[in-house]
Design goal:
Largest sheet: 8 strands, mixed
Radius of gyration: 17 Å
CATH superfamily: Alpha/Beta hydrolase fold, catalytic domain
Distance between the termini: 30 Å
Number of domains: 1
Order of helices and strands: HHEEEHEHEHEHHEHEHH
Structural class: alpha/beta
Helix content: 25-40%
Low-confidence stretches: 1-18
Strand order of the largest sheet: 1-2-4-3-5-6-7-8
Shape: globular
CATH class: Alpha Beta
Mean pLDDT: 92
CATH architecture: 3-Layer(aba) Sandwich
Strand content: 15-25%
Length: 268
């Protein structure tokens, strides 16, 4: 069954003005690249930016590959719609384990929060968005308190919310087993382990048609809601695991419309 709220949000894609999708193609500025310590990040901001909300993006790649340049239409689209956009690198497996990657994300966020005003961004209105492995890292750091002051989380398509439950269900595939080889660390590296006990920032949870994404995402969203957290659950079964990330910012994209409604409510 399609989540009612996500169905309503998806149906609102046509309500965004046409130039909300098209304007980014007219001008996509080169990023400002900075070294935040463990790695580098790119800041996309127009010259006249002032006090804009910020989206900080964490790329995917099975915790092993990928880089900050893999952003597709996101920078130009979000700049055209009033945001500053940041994309970060973090150290990859096998040189750095997932625990170290999460620490890298927290260091990148701390750098952005301390410095983004100089690029026209508002440090009190930062939303952290991640896809796949980046989705896991956004959820883990955001829920364990590693992103102090974060205004919202946009979690795009992972099964790695509860690693112990994933293993019990038979979903610990080779990709996950390589990233999380030590069962003794599964709870510590599971975002779900940090849900109970407090209300978290507004959270957008999207899932694709890839195997296991729907039940795992729905179970995670339900746990978050039980904690008092405001949650939007988006049924992305029309998307593959890759297209649910790649299509963001493209004209008529339903996920983009739903995320923008969420972001405008959370940080706009």
């Amino acid at each position: 069954m399609i989540d009612r709220r996500s169905l309503i949000l998806a149906s609102m894609a046509a309500m965004l003005p046409a130039d909300a999708f098209a304007a980014w193609r007219l001008r996509q500025p080169a990023p400002h690249t900075v070294d935040y310590g463990p790695a580098k990040l790119d800041i996309y901001a127009p010259d006249n930016a002032h006090n804009r909300p910020v989206v900080l993006f964490i790329h995917g790649g099975a915790w092993r590959i990928g880089n900050r340049s893999q952003v597709d239409a996101k920078p130009g689209f979000l700049l055209a719609n009033g945001f500053v956009f940041v994309s970060i690198d973090y150290r990859m497996l096998p040189q750095a384990d997932v625990a170290t990657q999460a620490d890298d994300v927290e260091k990148a966020y701390a750098y952005v929060r301390a410095n983004i005003a100089g690029y026209g961004g508002d440090p009190d209105r930062i939303a952290v968005m991640g896809h796949s492995a980046g989705c896991h890292l956004a959820a883990l750091t955001g829920l364990r308190g590693g992103l102090p002051g974060v205004a919202a989380l946009v979690l795009d398509d992972t099964r790695a919310y509860d690693l112990e439950a994933l293993a019990r269900s038979g979903g610990m595939t080779r990709t996950y087993a390589r990233a999380f080889p030590d069962p003794a660390q599964w709870r510590t590296l599971s975002p779900a382990a940090y849900v109970e006990g407090r209300k978290h920032p507004p959270t957008f949870v999207a899932y694709s048609r890839a195997q296991g994404r729907r039940p795992d995402s729905k179970a995670f969203a339900e746990r978050l809601r039980a904690s008092g957290t405001e949650v939007t659950l988006f049924d992305g079964s029309a998307y593959s695991h890759m297209s649910i990330n790649r299509d963001f910012g493209e004209e008529g994209d339903a996920l983009t419309a739903a995320v923008m409604i969420f972001l405008n409510a959370a940080v706009g």
